[in-house]
């Protein structure tokens, strides 16, 4: 039984470190804390599921969701973990290295650590200070730093830019 408990602890720990890919410099060195009403581990499929009032913190990062599923790929597959968060909505908050907050929300958030690709689906929004972008689907390629937003059948992409904040960003 002790061996099984150690294996569960090791698998859970390895899967949790994958969340640090969302973080910036200082946040990645901070401990990851996950609190939920329920947790389930499927060792055969290498999946950890957190449900009901899920709160994840790491440094300045705060993620709240109804459900979070972390999937670890088979060993030697060359792939990395994926994180799927569900909620009405999933929310996240982080302070950037320059001290500015970034907030986001969507009905579903998917992050592939191998490709470093973030997808926000359903009533998606990214906001920094008073500037924001809304769409049905927002994707962000972390490596290339490329963002794309798409509208839905009944909605268009909306972007609000605050000129004074743009000028401050150019001045830096």
Automatic annotation (TrEMBL):
Listed HAMAP family: LPS_assembly_LptA
Source taxon at top rank: Bacteria
Main location per the UniProt record: periplasm
Keyword Transport in record: yes
GO molecular function, one term: lipopolysaccharide binding
Alphabetic keyword roster: Periplasm, Signal, Transport
Organism: Haemophilus haemolyticus
GO CC terms, sorted: cell outer membrane; outer membrane-bounded periplasmic space
Record protein name field: Lipopolysaccharide export system protein LptA
Location(s), subcellular: Periplasm
């Amino acid at each position: 039984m002790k061996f099984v408990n150690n294996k569960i602890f090791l698998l859970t720990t390895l899967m949790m470190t994958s969340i640090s890919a969302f973080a910036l410099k200082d946040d990645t060195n901070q401990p990851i804390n996950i609190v939920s009403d329920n947790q389930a581990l499927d060792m055969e499929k290498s999946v950890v599921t957190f449900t009901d009032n899920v709160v994840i913190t790491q440094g300045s990062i705060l993620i709240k969701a109804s459900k979070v599923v972390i999937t670890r790929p088979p060993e030697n597959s060359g792939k990395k973990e994926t994180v799927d968060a569900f909620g009405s909505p999933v929310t996240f908050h982080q302070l950037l290295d320059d001290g500015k907050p970034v907030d986001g929300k969507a009905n579903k958030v998917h992050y592939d650590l191998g490709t470093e690709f973030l997808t926000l689906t359903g009533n998606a929004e990214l906001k920094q200070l008073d500037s924001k972008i809304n769409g049905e689907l927002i994707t962000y390629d972390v490596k290339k730093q490329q963002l794309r937003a798409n509208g839905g059948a009944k909605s268009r992409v909306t972007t609000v830019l605050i000129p004074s904040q743009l000028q401050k960003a150019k001045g830096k």
